[in-house]
Amino acid sequence: MCLLCVSVISASAWAETSTVTASKVASASASWTGSASETWAVSVNGGATNQNVTNSYAQVGTKNSPSTSITFSTSGISGTITSIVVDCASYEGKATISATVGGAAFGTQSQSIPSWSSNSGGEVTFTGNASGEIVITMTNGSGGRAMYIKSIVVTYTPSSAVENNRQYITLWSEDFSSYSSGNVPNGGEFSYSVSNGTGSGTTKIYDQNTAGGTSPELLVAKTNGSFTATITDFKSCTGEFLLNFVTNKGLTVIITADGDTIETTGNVKSDRTKTTLSFTLPQGTKVLVIEFKMTTNDNARLDNIVLKGNTYTRTVTSGNWGTICLPYDATVAGAKLYTIVGKEITGSEVTAILLDEVASIEAGKPYIFKATADNVVATYTGTTYTAAGAVNGLYGTYSAIAAGKWDTYVSGDLYLMTTSNVQAADKTTSSLAANRAYIVLDDVNNIGSPVKGVRLGFDGTETPTGIKNLTPALSEGEGVIYNLNGQRVNSLQKGINIVGGKKVLVK
Prior knowledge:
This protein is 0% helix and 48% strand. The protein is mostly beta strands and 507 residues long. The protein has three domains: 16-159, Jelly Rolls (Sandwich); 168-309, Galactose-binding domain-like (Jelly Rolls, Sandwich); 313-506, no CATH class. The strands form nine sheets. Strands 2, 3, 6, 8, 9, 10 and 12 form a seven-stranded antiparallel β-sheet that branches. Strands 26, 28, 29, 30, 37, 38 and 39 form a seven-stranded mixed β-sheet that branches. β8 and β9 (104-105) form a beta hairpin.
């Protein structure tokens, strides 16, 4: 039964980049290798090759022997391409550039290539959402001479971002693109700090891509120079985390949770390709600190850092009850999930709240659960953040609610789940942990006559009497549900239902 529909606009996993840096084009056919280990085929149509490389720009063609076109292609990037940035130039800006992905046009076609000026060119950007072979073509115009290429940077969501229907949530990412050469990262949302160590180097930004990412990048100074970030917003992720980055030297990575070291990995060298470290974040962690440190007498470069998670884990006791609310779509292991159907009325008194079992978590929607194992594990299947909402009197929250703060959330009576029951709660002394839900009984729909299902029982004074199957048992034919067309249905549907000869409205 769907009592609330949540619209999911988009689903995107973490973005990664691959950079291919130009080298001398010695002949009409060449091969380059990108930082994701992909192979790029370079094909020159006419004109002089084996020209100079100036300021990292490889020249193709000359005044007297211009090339008609240059094509760069690769099928080695597996995933969804979202951006292609080409740093290039042409004599007097007389050439254009286009890109296709998977055989279809990608972004704006036939864009003008920047003019070659002061031994430099500029960037041309293509954006879209496609997968398959990438083909980039630079085409010379009338009177065109030399063309130049420095680099191609592809941003993509790798196919491996979705494994066993999992989606990864990015908690922190840094490619240093907001910094200028010579800057020192400091403060900000993630409380950046750096150390210059005891050597002669300085930890600061360089406008280069020695690490294998995209320019600029961070130089971590030799002899205990370091870069540190502090993360306090885990975006409802617990359990296993993945840390990606690129570097060219043997960095040491030190990870601490609330001051306790949980991971130290030394001599990490990614050789200009992505390195992935995994670690488990202890439940209840408030502060996570990640430090990249260079312990040897050599400078290191660091770039394209991404921290991500894809699960929410809670330790419970099998058989106990609880509530849960998460900001992303998820599948759940170790628990049965329920939504509230409505409250059962006998006479003028509330006698029970009826529950309906569901298969998975919708982003922003609160649930009651019964644990079937000692760990409840929600694995995210979407990455679109949805604010915590309410369904039929069950209200979700991603933040903890302290005792005495309930009047901000609830004007009437408050009910909270315990491990075995639902209880009226004192708003001055009761608190609620993050990613839970609470019940406002006045906001629960009336369903009138009893129906079969899982039941939160109340006595005549609205005091909970336990969680059980519907009692007393209904005789044959009682509790059978029909729609307005007289067709029998398995459970209450949105709208008007006929139960026991009476109309029951489910909103």
